[in-house]
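Bug report (template v2)

What were you trying to do?
Predict the complex of my protein with adenosine-5'-triphosphate.

What happened?
Run completed; filing so the output is reviewed.

Input:
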Amino acid sequence: MSLTVENLTKKYGNKTVLNNITATFKEGKCYLLLGENGSGKSTLARCLSGDEPYHEGSIYFHENAAPSDKPIILQYQTFDSYPYLKVKEVIKLFRKLVTKPFDTDELEEILDISSFANTLMKNTSGGQRKAVSILVAFLLHKPYILLDEPFADLDLHKKQRLAAFLQQQVQQNNQCLVIISHEIAGLEEIFDYIYILKNGTFIEQGSNTELLQKYPHNVFPGLSGVYFEVTGKTLKEMTG
Ligand SMILES: Nc1ncnc2c1ncn2[C@@H]1O[C@H](COP(=O)(O)OP(=O)(O)OP(=O)(O)O)[C@@H](O)[C@H]1O
């Protein structure tokens, strides 16, 4: 199965935020969306997940055996639902929704869920809410998972463990991950294909190897250097 986006255009009022986007996302692959603040990454993710209408173009799944069962889930940057449930109750609730629950022990440990499992959702920190939203995205066991800045709020060791976990998911379960992240130093080998967005348009794309070959004389190592050469900005600057 693959997810195809063809000539997608999305506007807010008169402002075009996605302009003629074409892309393919295949199962068993991990994609990285890079772009500065406001370039349209989250809007694209919301269009892909079906949470946002768009104006022109099309988004469709190939070989979707059960079209009524939405095969994609977006982990939002924030998770503001169920304020009066404890974290462990929210997880239990979502676990009940799936017939074949996904074993989340490893992910719970990486995200340190046990340390705030008894906290009411309304009292959790931004980082803790994000951890719950990542866990929920995996619990539902969809073939396509969109993650918005999953590495933020984690220390380097946890980032590396989460990256290894994500890579394992892609390979073992043949899932497709689309990750919005600027915190990619040391994690780059998990990404099969990279799209760089600017003002709602892809200004560069390719596999890690292709991009490193195309932009070999970098000031910074790896994809950070590619991003700098393509955009003139560092990945840190893109966070504003
Ligand atoms: N609901 C909305 N109504 C109006 N404009 C919006 C809305 N959501 C996003 N925008 C605008 O669309 C553009 C793209 O925003 P988007 O959040 O997709 O960018 P982004 O690349 O994800 O940015 P960031 O890295 O800051 O999260 C921005 O100019 C933003 O102001």
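What did the reviewer find?
The helical segments are 41-49, 87-97, 105-110, 126-139, 156-173, 208-214, 222-231. The chain has two domains: 2-71+145-239, 76-141.
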